[in-house]
Amino acid sequence: MKTIMKRALATAGSMALLGSGLILGAAPAQALSCPPGQIMVDLGGGGQTCIPAATDGGNGNGGGDYGGGGGSGPGTVTGPPAQNGGNYGPTPGYQPPTQTYTPPAPVYNPPAQTYNPPAQTYTPPAQNYYAPPAQTGGGYAGYVNPGTGGAVSQNAAGTWVDSSTGAAVDPGVAAEAAEAEAKDTAAEEKAAAEKKAADEKAAKTASVKSTAEKAATYQRVLATAEKAVSGR
């Protein structure tokens, strides 16, 4: 009987000690003061810690209950703390990728050479001068004595004679012969002057033509050189 009573008392004492321990363990611990931006979390058994708050601002005194006793603040944490100390702050703004523009390389096309030297259209004038036939023999042989049909000429002494008879002609025939000879001499002098002018003109024309041909050749050489330079 004594043994049974001892066991009953021991059991009652153990139960009382266990109950007081549970009551003390369940008592709320003093609230932990957390810095701004964090909240206090009760880890149970009187343990507390601070974790980053889910939202910005606040005084850092919100509480959370994870099974070890009541929270000491008005806030209630409904989820587990962030993994690896994650931040519940706002998501950073979108940063678009930088556009790198590479302009296309310019392609230079030199202008085509369209210069064509003008064709040479100069035609020298035709030579229209015909010199009269040269006089053969001495004196003027073109006048004919109307009385005999012989040619009248002037000898070395200056006398007009009939070539068919060798006799001097009368003064009228001599005057006509002298007039004809004067006209013929003037015509010869005029012809000689015209021939000289024609020769000078022909020489000048040839010089102008040569100069024009040289200029055309120079233009062609210049155009060829410019085309070669622009094609490099």
TrEMBL record:
Which residue ranges have biased composition labelled Basic and acidic residues? 180-203
Q: Where is this region: Disordered?
A: 61-124, 175-210
User: Is the keyword Signal assigned to this protein?
Assistant: yes
Compositionally biased intervals (Gly residues)? 61-76
UniProt keywords (A-Z) are: Signal
Sequence ranges of Low complexity compositional bias = 77-102
TM segments? none
> What domain of life is recorded for the organism?
Bacteria
List the signal peptide residues: 1-31
> What name appears for this protein in its UniProt entry?
Uncharacterized protein
Lineage runs: Bacteria, Bacillati, Actinomycetota, Actinomycetes, Micrococcales
